[in-house]
Amino acid sequence: MNTAVWICQAVLAALFLVSGTAKISMSRDRLLATGQTGIAPFPMPVVRATAAAELLAAVGLIVPWASGVLPMVTPLAAVGLAAVMVGAAGAHLHLHEPLTAGANMVILSVCVFVAVTRFTGH
Q1: 39 DSSP assignment
Q2: Does residue 75 contact residue 114 with C-beta atoms inside 8 Å?
Q3: Do 118 and 75 meet the contact criterion of CB atoms below 8 Å apart?
Q4: At the N or C end, where does the chain have fewer CB atoms within 10 A?
Q5: Angstrom distance (rounded) from CA 101 to CA 89
Q6: Residue 122 pLDDT > 90, yes or no?
C-alpha cells in the first residue's frame, strides 16, 4: 500500500509542478492557447495565487512525509489540491468541458486517496 501511495504522491507532485509553473509564468493568452482553459473565468491574480498554492502543495506532498519533519503537511497538501480540483471541475463545467471536469474529478480522487491514507498513518 505504501508504494501505491508514494506513486500517487509523485504523480500528483509532478502534475502540479507542471501546472503551477505554467500558471505562474505564462500570460493568460499563452495559458489559454496551451489548453489551460479552466483559468478563463478567473482574474490573473487568482490564477497566480492558485499556481503558488499548487507549487507549495507539490513540495508538501513529498518532502514532509519523506523527511519525517511535519509529516501532517502531506495529507493537508493533498486536501488543498483536492479543493483546487473541485474549483477546476466547476470552472470546466461552466465552460461546457465535461471531459476535462471528469479528469479533474479523477485527480481529485487521487488527492483524496493520498489524504486518507496519510492521515491514517499509512
Answers
A1: G
A2: yes
A3: yes
A4: N
A5: 4
A6: no
